[in-house]
Amino acid sequence: MSLNECNYITQGNFYALNVTLLGKRILQHIGLNPGRLQIEFMSGGDGLLFAEVVDAFVKQVQALGPLGKGAEENIGSQALASRLSSVMKLVPYIKIAKREKLTARLTNEAAYEAHFTSEEIDSLFENVVSYYIEPSACKACMTCLRRCPVDAIDGRKNWIHVIDQEKCIKCGTCLEACPPLFSAVRKNF
Ligand code: SF4
Ligand code: SF4
Residue 164 CA: which ligand is closest? Predict the structure, then answer.
């Protein structure tokens, strides 16, 4: 099945493929075998094909062994839990940082492997941005606090606001929301 056979205007097949390719590189970054993730495209009438594909994939994952102990993997369960938790927290940031590539329309299978590289994903995690509020510029208008999707900003009227770095998911909303007149939110690369 060709990816652009999808009849919906959003052409979600392309996005799903890109997310999967990115996910495979993230698995590698974590220390897991990318063969644990797979995407296949087929129509709703391909029941038999679907069963075959799922069966083959289950066998493939079973052959890899327990998570973290399979081929190309050697990671303890505590380290794995910690890495997974850090990556999950950064999902909104990753989606913003890789927005362009996630919306690309790949039509050539040969381009799949190179769409995201290991070096690129390692660098993405090594150079994670952070946001902070410059106290001398903050006018305590509460705009950023109201817009933050995870309540990571502490403050109230007439109190300088502060970003809780543990809660912050690096979405950048506060940077966009802070009125240009104040420009109190700063981004560290
Ligand atoms: S970047 Fe700003 S808006 Fe986004 S989670 Fe962090 S503090 Fe909240
Ligand atoms: S939007 Fe800007 S000025 Fe207003 S509270 Fe947030 S950081 Fe301070």
Answer: 1
pTM, rounded to two decimals: 0.78
Indicate the domain borders of the chain: 3-126, 130-188
Candidates 3.30.70.20, 3.10.105.10, 3.40.109.10, 3.40.630.30; CATH matching 130-188: 3.30.70.20
CA triple 161-162-167, angle to 5 deg: 130
pLDDT band at 34 (very low <50, low <70, confident <90, very high): very high
Measure the CA–CA gap between 97 and 120, rounded to whole angstroms.
11
Q: Give residue 177 CA to ligand 2 midpoint distance, Å.
A: 8
Contact (Cβ atoms closer than 8 angstroms) between residue 93 and residue 188: no
- pLDDT of 12 reads 86
Looking at residue 84, what is its pLDDT?
A: 93
* 140 Cβ inside 6 Å of ligand 1: no
pLDDT at residue 6 above 80? no
